[in-house]
Amino acid sequence: MNQFIQQWGDAAYTSLGFFWMALWAFILGYIISSLIQIFITEKRMQKTMGDEGSKSILLGTFFGFISSSCSFSALATSKSLFQKGASFVSSIAFLLASTNLVIELGIIISIFLGWQFVVGEYIGGVLLILFSWLLIRLINPKKMIEKARKRLEDSKEDEHKKEASMVIKIKSPEKWAKVGKQYAMEWKMVWKDVTVGFTIAGIVAAFIPDSFFQTLFINSGEGQESFGFFTLLEHVVVGPVAAFLTFIGSMGNIPLAALLFDKGVSFAGVMAFIFSDLVVFPVLRINAKYYGWKMSLFILFLLFTSLIAASLLLHYSFDLFGLIPEASAKSITEKEHFTIDYTFYLNAVFLALSGILIYLGFFKGKDVMHHKEMAPKSPLLEKVLKWNALTCYVWLAIGIVLKYLPV
User: Fold this and answer.
1) Residue 353: pLDDT above 80?
2) Is the pTM of this model over 0.85?
């Protein structure tokens, strides 16, 4: 019993420590994302993404990069772009870029996994887009694309609305109020995923033995550096399955990815795990609601095949140049989290900025209306996730008490 209590305390401490490490990065990422989403509109994107050529793909990738957001927001925006004239392939490029080539995700990865994984994330995001483009050209599903486009109602609202200049926007108190509201919306979209993800990471670190991971990911283990092709293939297939079972977005899954790497899972397997936020059931269901089940399953095949190819190519390329990182001698769970260091000062600064944005959005600009289209989430799944998150808070509170309670 004493061992269980100790592990409970360690799990809660690790979860909160992980979140403390990443807090400033979350805030920075969501501030940047909020600024971009308020000051950059979709109008220009729609006019330049209408063909299947390389320019359209590049623009879709670029607009996705500067429109970084959570998966549900990215799904809604890519659908909107597609129904208003963007080509299918450029819409897919936008979707992949806005969920993989994102600033906030790169910062979180750098904290937990190191610069090699950040490089892998960005190069891999580009590879996902290229492989998807290649598969679309090879399969050429014209009839399916036409059917999906007809299924969507063509919205023309705001089409003739004159867009204000950037200088006017920056000087507008209304725009800054919307930035504050958008920032709050960003947290509202991810708080459940982040809470459950970081709590699960702490539980896995404290309770799950290494033998479990060695069974799940074959030929893995501490100190394992050489992997055969079929071992890597198993890792990049199991990675998305593991991500699917956690039911959490990529931001919440990064601590788990770091734990997998600590446990000896291959670079390819960890990258596949990180890339898997668009091949989970909620995304499949949303795409089916937008485009129909046939197109939704095609998109699933497209993305799953692309992430397998991208993860394997990344592993062999990094291995060729000696860039695959070694797991740290000191496990991520053994690090001191709550000390007066750069993390403490960064968290203090960005928490203050959060306060300013909340003031601008909900006090100074309380009468300003702001709404952003989101993909339709399942009420049942959201309710389950919400109660899981609230349960996590109870678990963490009791765990921290047990951590410092004299036994």
Assistant:
1) yes
2) no
